[in-house]
Amino acid sequence: MSTGHGAPADILLSAIAEHAKDGPMQQLLRLAVGRETLVIPIEVVREILEVGRMTPLPQTPPFVRGVMNLRGAVVPVVDLGARFGLGLTELGRRTAIIVVEAKGDEDYDRLIAGVLVDAVYEVLEVDSKRIEAAPNLGVAIAPEFLAGMVNVRGSYAALLNLDQVLSPAALSALMAAPQPA
């Protein structure tokens, strides 16, 4: 006689089979840049700092806020809002610098940089199979800077491709362009 409920072993096997469809879990740091909710892979994050003293660099684009001293190393600070054309980030109580490591180029294997953001919220664990392709429309950030979209509590967050955002070749080209006086 069946009661309509599966045996505990059947329920367990069903749960295991359902979980097997999932991909590997990926940890993402959720942050804000302007009105945009973004995520970056936690493995690229070296540390998260309060905004401290930055030394401005002359004749650089507005998105280069300057350099900072990180335990004796000079680290450039890139304002993500300005880099994405959303305007300069206003320094406030929640503003932070996330020190990240991105791919380098033929001269440098890795690029260490600080990225200035409006706020840092939390670390999320996301099934990598649930990361969706980024749409070409409806996102304020250029498609080449996006690796995908992630559903976070019924709303979407853009997954940044920091290797593109901080590409040494692209940043060098932008820095070499004439700057307004």
Provide a quick synopsis of the model.
This protein has 181 residues and is α+β, with helices and mostly antiparallel strands.
Write a structural description.
Residues 25-171 form the CheW-like domain. It holds the Pfam family CheW. This is Purine-binding chemotaxis protein CheW. One of its GO terms (biological process) is chemotaxis. There is one protein chain. The protein has a single domain (25-176), classed as CheA-289, Domain 4 (OB fold (Dihydrolipoamide Acetyltransferase, E2P)). It starts with 7 loop residues before the first helix and ends in a 5-residue tail after the last helix. The model has no long low-confidence stretch (mean pLDDT 86). The protein is elongated, with a radius of gyration of 20 Å. It has helices at 8-20, 80-83, 162-165, 168-176; strands spanning 25-33, 36-41, 45-50, 64-70, 73-79, 96-103, 110-117, 119-127, 146-152, 155-160. The protein contains four helices and ten strands. A hairpin with a 2-residue loop joins strand 1 (25-33) and strand 2 (36-41). By secondary structure, the protein is α+β, with helices and mostly antiparallel strands.
